[in-house]
Task: structure prediction
Amino acid sequence: MPTSGSTSTDTELLARYAVPELLELGAGAAVRATGSGVRSYLADGRGVAWHVPDTLSGRAAIDAELSAQRVTGSLARRAGSTDPAVVWPRWIQCEVTAKLLGLPVLSWLGWPGLIVPGDLARQVRVAFVPVRDVLVCCGLRAQH
Result:
């Protein structure tokens, strides 16, 4: 799966921690109740929690979408595609980048093709992890 930006240390951390075993997929309320990890919620009411070590929790974020979820017309126009396999990875990578860099919610909708600009992509490292019918983007803000 695609990755972007940052250092080999972050790449190694994602290889170790951005794995299905550390992603909890379940009912939204149950995921909320775990009280640990970083979370994302899905359109069908489920949630995903990424259980990262405490040393990473301040610079970690996730977003997730249903892998086969239909792409709306307006979103397809922004992304330049109706294919969920193209659109959802872009969407969740944009979300994770915005979360990690403290950008306003949905400020990234104007990014051409929903592709993270290079200057921002270099500030984060991401990994995509499929978990059953969900695609999760796990990200770390780069250490400087």
Notes: The first helix runs from residue 8 to 17.
